[in-house]
C-alpha cells in the first residue's frame, strides 16, 4: 500500500490547479510538513499530505473531497478518510465564522462548493477540530520553494499507518 500512495503522489508532480503558485505534489508535501511541524499525529499529517489526492490523474473525477475520502478509507482508515472528506466543509466554516483569507482559486472554488456556511456541518464530530487544523495547513501550503519533507520522509509516516 505505501507503493500505491507513492505512485499517486508521483502522479501529482506537475499537476497545477490553474492560478495556484505550486503544483499538487509540492502543495501536498508542504501541507504535511506544516502538520508535522505543528505536532500533529501521524493520521493528521497523512491527511494533510493526501487531502487533494483526488487531483491525481489516476483517480476518478468528481468532488475531490469525496473522491479522496472514498479512495483513502480502505487504504489508510476511517479517520484519515474522514479528515480528507471534511476539509472542504472546514473551509466553508472558516470563511463563515472568521476573517479567513483564501487564495483567488480557493475563493472561486468556494462558490461551487456551496459557499461559506456554518449550517449543516459536523461541528460536534470529535474529529472536527483536526479537520479545521488540516484546512489551515492546506491554505498555508502554497508557497513556491518553501521547505517541505521529501516523498521518502512522508512515506515513512504512511508506512506507520499501513
Automatic annotation (TrEMBL):
**Which residues does the UniProt record annotate as the domain HD?**
26-92
Protein origin, superkingdom:
Bacteria
Q: Which InterPro entries match?
A: HD_domain (IPR006674), OP_Dioxygenase (IPR052567)
Protein name listed in UniProt? HD domain-containing protein
Naturally occurring in which organism (per UniProt): Pseudonocardia ailaonensis
Amino acid at each position: 500500500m505505501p507503493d500505491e500512495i507513492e505512485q499517486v503522489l508521483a502522479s501529482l508532480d506537475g499537476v497545477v490547479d490553474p492560478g495556484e503558485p505550486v503544483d499538487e505534489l509540492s502543495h501536498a508535501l508542504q501541507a504535511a510538513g506544516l502538520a508535522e511541524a505543528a505536532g500533529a499525529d501521524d493520521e493528521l499529517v497523512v491527511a494533510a499530505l493526501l487531502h487533494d489526492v483526488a487531483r491525481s490523474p489516476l483517480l476518478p473525477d468528481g468532488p475531490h473531497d469525496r473522491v479522496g475520502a472514498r479512495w483513502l478509507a480502505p487504504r489508510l482508515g476511517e479517520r484519515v478518510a474522514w479528515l480528507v472528506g471534511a476539509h472542504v466543509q472546514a473551509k466553508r466554516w472558516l470563511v463563515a465564522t472568521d476573517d479567513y483569507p483564501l487564495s483567488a482559486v480557493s475563493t472561486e472554488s468556494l462558490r461551487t462548493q456551496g459557499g461559506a456556511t456554518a449550517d449543516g456541518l459536523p461541528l460536534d464530530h470529535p474529529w472536527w477540530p483536526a479537520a479545521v487544523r488540516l484546512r489551515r495547513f492546506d491554505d498555508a501550503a502554497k508557497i513556491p520553494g518553501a521547505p517541505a519533507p521529501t516523498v521518502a520522509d512522508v512515506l515513512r509516516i504512511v508506512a506507520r499507518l499501513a
